[in-house]
Amino acid sequence: MPSLGFPELILILVIALIIFGPGKLPSVGSAIGKALSEFKKSSRELVSDEPINKDEKI
């Protein structure tokens, strides 16, 4: 599978700018960032079989 290069990322950014508009783009980026960080946290918990947050007990 080919990887995304700089021209492809610019094209995706331009398309997102056209679809969402310049006012809503920061909030969409923030929501995507939060979703990715939650996904990474959950996948690390599944791999290690223990919660990442030490205060949280099961």
From TrEMBL:
GO terms for cellular component: TAT protein transport complex. One of its GO terms (molecular function) is protein transmembrane transporter activity. InterPro entries: TatA/B/E, TatA/E. One of its GO terms (biological process) is protein transport by the Tat complex. Keywords: Cell membrane, Membrane, Protein transport, Translocation, Transmembrane, Transmembrane helix, Transport. Its main location: membrane. The keyword Cell membrane applies. It is a single-pass membrane protein. It holds the Pfam family TatA_B_E. Forms a complex with TatC. Belongs to the TatA/E family. Part of the twin-arginine translocation (Tat) system that transports large folded proteins containing a characteristic twin-arginine motif in their signal peptide across membranes. TatA could form the protein-conducting channel of the Tat system. This is Sec-independent protein translocase protein TatA. It comes from Clostridium chromiireducens. The gene is tatAd_2.
